[in-house]
Amino acid sequence: MEGTTEDTAEVQQRRKYRFKAGTKAIREIKKLQKSTDKIIPRAPFSRLVYEVLKNRKSDAKISKGGMESLQEAIEIYCVDLLKKSNTYAIHAKRKTIQEDDLKCAQTSLLENAA
Fold first, then answer.
1. Residue 40 sits in a domain of what CATH number?
2. What is the value of pTM for the model shown?
């Protein structure tokens, strides 16, 4: 009987399986790349837009279609910015994006837009 209680104690003390570093991140990236949903939640985004509009002009309004297109444009800009900054980080032989990478990417995106 002693052997069975030790076996159950050993089973209870087993560690949870841990994935290698970055496995969950890669899985999440692949999931997001497959989906066509918006990345930024609609409600917090619209609250932010209305707050900015209120600071600029108190009686400004925006239509639902205008809000959706604005959100789409901002998400595309953010994704492009992060892609470009990741390219700069890779060029510097790093895996982590730093503030300088974001600044350089933002400058190059603004130059391309002008």
1. 1.10.20.10
2. 0.70
